[in-house]
Amino acid sequence: MSNHYMLTGYPGFLSGRLFRGLVQHDPSARFTFLVHPSQMDKARQQIGSQDHVHLLEGDITLEDLGIPEEETNRLREEVTHFLHLAAIYDLAVPKDAAYKVNVKGTDHVNRFVQSLTHLKRYVYFSTAYVSGTRTGKVTEEDLACGQDFKNHYEETKFEAEKLVRDLKGVPTTIIRPGVVVGDSQTGETEKFDGPYFIFRYLDAMNPFPVPYVGKGENPFNIVPVDYIIQSTVYLTHAGKDGTFHLTDPSPYSAREVYEMIAEELLGKKPRYTIPEKIAKAMMSIRMIRRYFGVEKEAISYMSSQSDYDSSWTQSVLREGGIHCPDFKSYLPNLVRYYQEHREDTAKKIPIR
């Protein structure tokens, strides 16, 4: 029997890239994408007519994922790999919306996964930032360590990962990416969020002397999307249960990342420092954060980040010849893509 992969989160950027990676690894496989009704038209446009792909309308916030009973019965007998990517990733997401999708949605997916009779692997996409406000070294087995959280996104992903870890008798791989940016070769990305808020801020500051924001002595863990996809495809088939930090094993500091982006994007170095408290106060004013195009929650990621230990992941990925590229080596590709698409409104995150 050929493998049958079921994915949530399509037609999102990560799930679309992951689909292509899985097809390359397993050309004879079949696929079912659980697609929210609001995304079905986009999904049809992206997938076209591919006989090995089935687009199934559903909703992870509903019991049985909102799937008709006859479809549910068929999938329970056919699905061999379930990859759960659907989530709200917005740093500024309200608590109720984040909880409904990220926590309740994952609970519903977990129950569905437990009913699959031929399941070989359940892959859950968490985030390294379930570490919340922790500082110092965070191992891949660490989860609940009394930490607080910088936003509802982190908190609800933490709660969801706890639910996944509590599953019994399910072969489970938990993926914890760092901050994901575009493709290391092409620079391609779907949205200018995350570290791209630095790009947008520096763009707005270009006519003026550019400041650093805070001390930035902490590690700033950035990874390209192609590393995430290549690693996830490998880990999906490696037969190893556990939690995997898909993070840069040798990250630059936030200050170094900021300076490298400024030099590549603007051709000049920052000349002075704005204390983080002042930057946060400024971005609390809607008019200012909209001018700069920066979510106020993003400022927190310039300081007080954890140091993610990815020793286990690196040892496993080495067996597949996979390594994380150095940020400096692919930054020019990220900047070039950003410059070519900076005015694309579909890639901009609305600032509240």
TrEMBL record:
Lineage top rank: taxon: Bacteria
Domain Thioester reductase (TE) residue range list: 7-231
InterPro entries with a match to the protein in the record: FAR, FAR_NAD-bd, NAD(P)-bd_dom_sf
A Gene Ontology biological process term: long-chain fatty-acyl-CoA metabolic process
Matching Pfam families: NAD_binding_4
A Gene Ontology molecular function term of the record: alcohol-forming very long-chain fatty acyl-CoA reductase activity
The protein's name in its UniProt record: Thioester reductase domain-containing protein
